[in-house]
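ok so for the tutorial part 2 we go from a plain amino acid sequence to predicted structure tokens. step 1 is just haveing the sequence, like this:
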Amino acid sequence: MSGLRIGPAGWSYPQWKGVVYPAAGPHPLETLARQFDVVEINSSFYQPLKPEIVQLWLNKIQRNRRFRFTAKMFQRFTHARILEDREVEQFKEGLRPLLRAGRLGALLMQFPWAFRFTAENRDFFIRLRREFHEFPLVAEMRHSSWMAEEAIGTFLDYRVGFCNIDQPESIRAMPPTAFLTSGIGYARLHGRGPGYLYSQAELAEWAGRIEKTGRYADEMFVIFSNDASAKSIVNALQLQAMMAGVRAPAPIELRRRYPLELECFGARRAEQQSLFTAA
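step 2 — the prediction. this is what the tokens look like for a chain of 279 residues:
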């Protein structure tokens, strides 16, 4: 899958300093763009992005031509369901530098569990699609009612990607899926409990779903959001090696904290792999 990109959700976590990237040094995105081909922007969920800040981010990832950002839609649109023209335009303006640069992989509409499949919610889903018609949209549904045939048909009719998720089990929660409803394949792995680290067997299980989905997708994004103690970085590195054959070197401190999981992710091993592949 040439369009497969795996990476973490967010990067501005204080507990990552000195572990994932140097406490004082290059911008975190410079480090992450050497290891991964995608990062999901979390901050856009809480407030619109500022175009000048987005341009700074673009400058930090220039060396990786494959790199893409995905971004979460503003929560006032998806959760409060308030669509004011001024706010909508402000939010779009923050994303446009990514769109113009060809670096926006997808805009993720993350809905709460209470957003079930009803006629009213379907209409709002369509309204959001029309408001953001120029952006590549993906929707994350937490409630299993969105697996109904009519619901999937709405995704297909309006060319919205279906976000396949892994989350803690609960009544009527969306189970693991492998749906593809547009040219964009998307998977978000939240972990199955607080501070959850996926095992190799669990990653292999998801690799099967991702391969099934990504086989027909133009682009396939896999995002880990189990960011506590940098577990998202560990699992993203592991899955990237498993599926893409890319064993990016892990930071020394991260390897010290996860010696078993990252045993083969030292700089020397990665260099040897690169030489072997080139040969």
